[in-house]
Inverse folding.
């Protein structure tokens, strides 16, 4: 895996300048909010071309473990908004591959993809590849606590980025043709990884929050840059495929710096630094004091808990992705092929 990722990167370097040039011209001005009334953003699909969504990833995307405080996650919202079929395979706690970043949860490689293949084989699902969009949103656990950030494995961000992009090649090999690759959010802005963090349910041991925040920013920025370069290099090599890069990083950065354009709750102030469901722990102890924000106040928050997006943040992720199915396109998606 390590060798493959490195080789792929080196092979890509000459293509970078050209790809960067081709990527210009996507500035859509300062308009915010998304939604069906927006102008159309370039994409290779018209309304009704795509009829199904197959999702891979971690707790941000898992539909059996609701992490936004609501009753559904963003994939079911997309299915509702755009009236399409959903085949969800993402699992909470998962990383890209347990061979690279081991955690005791179902990873994309080794668990989620094999489950998908088994479902196809026994006809639990039947997909028309031209009408199906495959999505991947992974990395939160790979770069986070008990993994890269805390040095719990021998992996590097290059290994992780290589694995993420291998998902495209691997699924292409199984017949998939349309891909949506969701990059990592600015994790250093989540309460868990921010400089003003508190001891919480995900980490209650002593630590230097400034160092965590700085390191996390580096991991996310370099990981996102690596996957972008690798995908740009891959795009022209996969005949008949469409690869879209969903810029979660820009979307969440915008929600953080510009909350009035995205959050609409009834709390007295927008809140992008705290969370709806927060628990402040004693260091190295199970004692905690928890606060829960209820009702329509919740939609004033960017984060649900110390690690996960709020329901309102998820609605925006879903709206942008639904717009792909509805033919409008999204300003957060760049189609590399
Ligand atoms: C992980 O390692 C095992 C044992 O070496 C191997 O059989 C498997 O194919 C590897 N999986 C991936 C996704 O690389
Ligand atoms: C098909 O395989 C999946 C994954 O192993 C399994 O969960 C499901 O029950 C199987 N369905 C049938 C109809 O055999
Ligand atoms: C935490 O790390 C920062 C950055 O390295 C450093 O400036 C600061 O002194 C550290 N704080 C403590 C309490 O060690
Ligand atoms: C905020 O907007 C979303 C649509 O983005 C809507 O579903 C939700 O009900 C709104 N929340 C409040 C408190 O009005
Ligand atoms: C944001 O939420 C946190 C709870 O996580 C709270 O402590 C903080 O005071 C709130 N900030 C604002 C500006 O309301
Ligand atoms: C939210 O609801 C819970 C459960 O009913 C309650 O314990 C808590 O005090 C409420 N929070 C606020 C801020 O009112």
């Amino acid at each position: 895996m390590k060798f493959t990722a490195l080789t792929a990167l080196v092979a890509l370097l000459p293509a970078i300048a050209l790809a960067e040039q081709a990527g210009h011209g996507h500035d859509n001005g300062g308009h915010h909010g998304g939604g069906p009334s927006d102008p159309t953003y370039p994409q290779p699909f018209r309304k009704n071309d795509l009829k199904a969504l197959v999702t891979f990833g971690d707790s941000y995307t898992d539909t059996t473990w609701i992490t936004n405080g609501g009753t559904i996650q963003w994939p079911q919202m997309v299915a509702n908004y755009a009236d399409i079929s959903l085949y969800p395979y993402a699992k909470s706690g998962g990383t890209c591959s347990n061979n690279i970043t081991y955690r005791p949860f179902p990873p994309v490689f080794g668990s989620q993809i094999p489950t998908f293949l088994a479902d196809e084989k026994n006809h639990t699902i039947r997909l028309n590849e031209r009408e199906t969009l495959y999505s991947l949103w992974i990395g939160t656990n790979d770069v986070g606590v008990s993994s890269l950030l805390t040095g719990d494995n021998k992996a590097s961000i290059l290994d992780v980025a290589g694995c993420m992009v291998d998902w495209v090649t691997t699924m292409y090999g199984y017949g998939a043709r349309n891909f949506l690759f969701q990059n990592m959010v600015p994790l250093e802005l989540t309460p868990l990884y921010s400089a003003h963090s508190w001891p919480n349910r995900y980490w209650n041991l002593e630590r230097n929050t400034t160092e965590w925040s700085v390191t996390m920013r580096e991991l996310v920025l370099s990981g996102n840059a690596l996957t972008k370069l690798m995908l740009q290099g891959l795009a022209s090599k996969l005949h008949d495929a469409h690869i879209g890069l969903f810029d979660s990083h820009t979307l969440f950065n915008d929600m953080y710096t510009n909350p009035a354009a995205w959050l609409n709750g009834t709390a007295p102030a927008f809140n992008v630094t705290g969370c709806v469901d927060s628990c402040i722990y004693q260091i190295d102890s199970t004692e905690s004091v928890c606060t829960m924000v209820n009702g329509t106040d919740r939609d004033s928050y960017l984060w649900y808990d110390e690690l996960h997006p709020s329901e309102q943040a998820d609605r925006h992720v879903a709206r942008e992705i639904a717009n792909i199915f509805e033919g409008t396109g999204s300003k957060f998606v760049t189609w590399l092929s």
In short: The pocket of 2-acetamido-2-deoxy-beta-D-glucopyranose (ligand 4) is lined by residues 264-266, 296, 299, 312, 315 (CB under 6 Å). The two ends are 25 Å apart (CA to CA). The chain is about 35% helix and 10% strand. Residues 1-38 have pLDDT under 50 and may be disordered.
